[in-house]
Amino acid sequence: MGLGNVEIMSTTAAEIICQSKLSLALTGAGISVESGIPDFRSRGGLWERFDPMEYGTISAFQANPEKVWTMFQEMEKIIRRARPNPAHKALGRLQHMGLLHTIITQNIDNLHQEEGATSVIEYHGNSKTLSCISCDRQYRLEKLGEEIPPRCTCGQILKPDVVLFGEAIPPRALRESHELASSCEALLVIGTSAQVAPANTIPLIAKKAGASIIEINVEPTLLTSSVTDIFFQGRAGELVTKLADEVEGIMNQN
Ligand code: NAD
Fold first, then answer.
1. Mutation pick for ligand 1 pocket among 40, 109, 242 (CB with most ligand atoms within 8 Å)
2. What are the helix (H) ranges across 64-163?
3. Which of these, 20, 39, 53, 176, has the minimum number of CB atoms within 10 Å of its CB?
4. Is 178 annotated in the active site?
């Protein structure tokens, strides 16, 4: 099903979620744009000043951690101000209704968890903890002092526990999300351009397993004409809320 009657599509998508034995959501930077955190592709945003390919790689951090920390510092300021938006709330509602098994997020902003999501896999880590790449000691962000960049007791500059380009996905997150994707019946794909691997294989794994793929994005992506069954074009805040309302309506009728 491509672009078409939004009302019918929305009811169909809601019915799929209600009937599915295992539903998942895969979220990307787009779901947090309405919380004030720019995605990689927004104009005039953070990523125009900090090219992810120059600042967002593990080799850049190893070569010049102070330089990469100028990006981390700005990101942290933005994330600290951000609050969950209606899309995070709507996914949290679906989880509390027992109709969304797990949210697999590529985001590092903690906003799903802040909205009371019950099961979240952080595919690219989280910015709330930091580790020493030399001795592996881990620290909580709020326990660190004012020093920037913060240092380990061994003297090394710490790295936030976010997956940089060139780093492996945390093994447990990788294993669990790929196992769930291969047994899910419905996958909501929200606000991701599906250009970052291996996160972008999750919709393909789910599709191969026979799942219905429901995508929400302000613009078509690489997935839209290949694996997506139902595409909703628009902002996540409005569209995920609408979908959760429809689901709630169906559940209340039964
Ligand atoms: P991306 O920047 O590549 O793509 C974002 C997608 O969201 C785009 O397709 C865009 O059209 C869509 N979008 C933008 N605003 C939207 C809205 N209001 N509603 C619905 N869709 C919207 O992001 P990605 O695919 O997640 O991959 C980039 C990587 O960057 C990820 O690994 C992620 O970890 C990281 N990242 C995370 C954050 C965060 O934690 N909030 C922010 C920026 C980047």
1. 40
2. 65-81, 86-96, 111-114
3. 53
4. no
